[in-house]
From TrEMBL:
Signal peptide: none
Pfam families: WPP
InterPro entries per record: WPP1/2/3, WPP_dom, WPP_sf
Compartments, as annotated in UniProt: Cytoplasm; Nucleus
Protein name: WPP domain-containing protein
Residue segments, region Disordered: 118-146
Keywords assigned: Cytoplasm, Nucleus
Record bears the keyword RNA-binding: no
Protein's organism: Hibiscus sabdariffa
Domain of life: Eukaryota
């Protein structure tokens, strides 16, 4: 077993300390930039949006699912609009986290608006129920009598 006081052990410890110091200096100079997101990240957001819109979820139970082809087009539009809004609100002084939060909130808001609008349009175009049909018949009958 080597003696910890021997020159080789001291040289090894000094070399290790130098590596640690070099790594720490590199990490101190490292900047981590989260805005704008990479294309890979934006593509992952798109894929998740498509999945959320087109598959069973809490959202779809309330507002219905969107066919995959339509979900893909809608997701692309939602992501692009959210990116534009977030990018326009960014400045070099702002923290990237804040801009990322704007981006995330815009995506959520636009996704919810889309499914609500789609659900409302579907319910507006649905055939009228028997109660509506009866009131229409009564109204027509009254007009015919006049």
């Amino acid at each position: 077993m080597a003696d910890p006081e021997s020159p080789t052990a001291g040289d090894s410890a000094a070399a290790t300390q130098t590596q640690v110091d070099d790594t720490a200096a590199k990490l101190n100079n490292l900047t981590f930039k989260i805005w704008p997101p990479t294309q890979r990240t934006r593509d992952a957001v798109l894929n998740r949006l498509v999945e959320t819109l087109s598959s069973e979820s809490v959202l779809s139970k309330r507002y219905g699912t969107v066919p995959k082809e339509e979900a893909s087009a809608v997701a692309k539009l939602i992501e692009e609009e959210a990116f534009s809004v977030a990018d326009a609100s960014s400045s070099t002084d702002e923290d990237g986290i804040e801009i990322l939060q704007v981006y995330s909130k815009e995506i959520s808001k636009r996704m919810l608006d889309t499914v609500k609008t789609r659900a409302n349009a579907a319910s507006d175009s649905a055939p009228s129920g028997p109660a509506e049909a009866d009131s229409n018949n009564v109204e027509t009958a009254v007009k015919d009598e006049d």
